[in-house]
Design goal:
The complex is a heterodimer of chains A (145) and B (505). Helices cover 70% and strands 0% of the residues of chain A. Chain A has 145 residues and is mostly helical. In chain A, helix 1 runs antiparallel to helix 2. Chain B has one domain (2-230, 241-489). Chain B is built from 21 helices and two strands. Classes of the chains: A mainly alpha (145), B mainly alpha (505). At the A-B interface, helix 1, helix 2, helix 3, helix 4 and helix 5 of A face helix 7, helix 8, helix 18, helix 19 and helix 20 of B.
């Protein structure tokens, strides 16, 4: 079933790619192939293999159960949070928070996770800032203007 | 003797303090990365690339550092295979079959030393093979026009999809996904933007480093969280380490055979180290008179796959350097490194930048001796690394990946995109769709389109031009055979069951 659903998604993507390619207008000075042919070929190949995937699905994969899915969702949220806050909040705080939460996901021990968060945040900051010379701001930039 | 002159040039590059220390640092880092279960060579090289840029190394130095990491990871992969029964990376999977039983019999030290020596034999001879074969192939590649390159890229996708995967349609889908993603952004020959959906961030296209780190490192974080607790490995105690001279002597032909099989498996575009170790193990087993001992801690079952996997790692550099077509996931990552450094691999590289190629080869020859020392007398140090808890390691990997990509672009959009690739990679892993063809597609898509369009310009739109030379016809046939033949060979190439079979390299 999963294979079929994914195959359907890919079919839609392939059709979208194809449709979007036909919208491209070749400039008059373009080469004989132009900017749309190759994407259309890819769309065709994708469509074909997606149809095979729909008609001959493999065994159902072991999807994670609800509890694990919740954990994965939280991990995803943490990564998105990290991506969004790394710049405005500076390096130390988001890194400590994100790595502590991720660590807790893998091994749910409060003290260990907090230690991991603080240790990674401080340790990596020193390596990145002084070892590799990256321009990282340790604290929120607003505080320093 | 051209080779000797070239080697002298190479060693003059390699024997500088900077290059040597980079090589040694790369070997140490690589062995650590290889030893850590779940953090494979492609992963490790991928997260280190952005950091290498921040060191502002020149092309040769960056390449030396990363290739040493690559070689080191190939050596180190066996450590957790033997001690934990968890392959440190996918090519080391075959080593679990006899390495772990051997360790359980109390011969863990012997297994580590023997496999270290086998790794050295494989990698060292393969580096010599690279030295001899690459210039020849580079000369052949001079006859390649756009039509031949188009067929060659197709061949790489087909063999990667055919041999590597269990389901041809799924590999094809993976390739198409990658090619489709590579189309996003400005079309270089007409200057128009394609498939960006109006998003300004996508005008430059999807940076392949973002895709690679997302698909490898971020995916690994999700996989790790999901599988937490399932990999309950029981470690084997490591006693004193002595050198099992008799075993090494007795497996000398095994190592040589493994090296040859592995090297050629590696040279095949798209096949790579996993195939090398697999074929080396299987051919050794079929040659052996007493097959029953395989799987119960046979020394040949330890020596063959390790020689094969490291030889394939060297072999995989041949098509990457001479043709710009990577032979495996990790060489795809190395190709990404080259492309970011503005170096176009191919025959011209050998003529115009000989110091890069020969400096690299000379450094690899030296690196192998460094790795032999690290992996035989000092192997005990690296076994300590296995005790680093995952709850510390994985967040560390995540943060390093994010900061690495952030240091390249400084935009949160790339970080979000990378997270998106991580989710995609996890979904693909669950559906058993290989991720390596996606990366190869993203890397090579642009080149493939350019060669198609150049070929059509040359022929003025005549599509039969794609088959105009014997080389291109040969490549097309090889591509079709490489894609279709594994369907029929599948019953022969059935892989044994492994602990944690889902790794990809």
């Amino acid at each position: 079933m999963s294979d079929r659903i994914f195959g359907l998604i890919l079919t839609a993507l392939a059709l979208a790619l194809f449709a979007s390619a036909t919208q491209l207008e070749s400039p008059f000075f373009a080469d004989p192939v132009g900017p749309k042919t190759f994407p259309m070929l890819i769309a065709g190949a994708a469509l074909l293999s997606a149809l095979v995937m729909i008609s001959l699905p493999d065994q159902e994969p072991n999807w994670p159960n609800f509890l694990t899915l919740k954990k994965l969702g939280l991990a995803l949220l943490v990564l998105v949070f990290y991506a969004l806050t790394l710049k405005p909040l500076g390096f130390l705080l988001p890194t400590a928070l994100a790595s502590a939460i991720l660590s807790f996901q893998i091994s749910p021990k409060l003290v260990g996770s907090v230690a991991t968060g603080i240790g990674l945040s401080a340790g990596l900051f020193f390596i990145f800032k002084f070892g590799l010379g990256l321009s990282l701001f340790p604290f929120p930039r607003v505080l320093f203007g | 003797m051209e080779i000797i002159d070239n080697l002298i040039l190479g060693f003059s590059v390699a024997l500088t303090i900077t290059t040597l220390s980079l090589a040694i640092a790369g070997c140490v880092l690589g062995t650590i990365i290889g030893a850590l279960p779940g953090l494979g060579p492609s992963n490790g090289v991928a997260i280190l690339i952005p950091l290498a840029f921040s060191l502002e190394l020149d092309a040769t130095q960056a390449l030396v550092l990363m290739t040493s990491v690559y070689y080191g990871a190939m050596y180190g992969g066996r450590i957790s295979s033997i001690l934990l029964n968890i392959p440190g990376d996918e090519p080391a999977m075959m080593t679990t079959l006899d390495g772990y039983p051997m360790a359980k019999k109390g011969r863990a030290g012997d297994a580590l030393v023997l496999s270290g020596v086998a790794s050295f034999v494989g990698a060292f001879l393969a580096t010599i093979g690279l030295m001899l074969l690459a210039p020849i192939l580079a000369r052949v590649a001079f006859y390649f026009g756009p039509a031949e390159y188009f067929a060659l890229y197709l061949l790489a996708f087909c063999t990667l999809g055919g041999i590597g995967a269990e389901n041809q349609a799924k590999s094809a889908i993976a390739v198409c996904l990658g090619l489709g993603i590579s189309m996003i952004g400005v079309d270089n020959s007409t200057g128009m933007t394609r498939f960006t959906g109006g998003n300004l961030h996508l005008y430059d296209g999807v940076d392949f480093l973002v895709a690679i780190v997302g698909l490898f490192a971020v995916t690994e974080i999700f996989v790790f969280i999901e599988s937490r607790g399932r990999d309950s490995a029981i470690g084997v105690k490591l006693g004193r380490i002595s050198i099992p001279f008799r075993d090494i002597f007795n497996t000398r032909w095994t190592m040589l055979r493994g090296t040859i099989v592995g090297f050629f498996a590696g040279v095949l575009p798209g096949a790579g180290a996993s195939l090398g170790s697999f074929l080396a193990y299987m051919s050794e087993k079929s040659l052996a008179k007493n097959k029953d001992t395989f799987g119960t801690g046979d020394v040949r079952g330890v020596a063959a796959p390790e020689a094969g996997n490291n030889a394939a790692a060297g072999g995989a550099l041949v098509p990457m350097l001479t043709l710009g077509v990577p032979g495996s996931g990790t060489t795809a990552v190395l190709l990404a490194l080259l492309m970011t450094l503005n170096i176009t691999p191919g025959p011209l590289l050998f003529n115009e930048r000989p110091e890069v190629v020969w400096g690299l080869i000379a450094t690899l020859l030296i690196a192998n001796f460094v790795l032999l020392i690290l992996n035989v007398p000092l192997v005990k140090l690296f076994t300590k690394i296995l005790q680093v808890p995952a709850s510390f390691l994985l967040p560390g990997v995540a943060m390093i990946s994010f900061v690495g990509i952030y240091s390249l672009s400084g935009s949160h959009f790339d970080l979000l995109l990378m997270t998106g690739f991580g989710v995609l990679g996890f979904t693909l892993r669950k559906l058993k769709i290989p991720a390596v063809p996606v990366i190869l597609g993203i890397l090579l898509g642009g080149h493939m389109e350019v060669s198609l369009r150049r070929a059509m310009v040359l022929s003025d739109g005549d599509w039969t031009y794609l088959f105009h030379s014997y080389i291109s016809i040969g490549l097309w046939i090889a591509a079709i055979v490489g894609f279709v033949a594994p369907i029929f060979l599948r019953s022969y190439l059935k892989k044994p069951d492994f602990p944690g079979k889902e790794y990809d390299s």
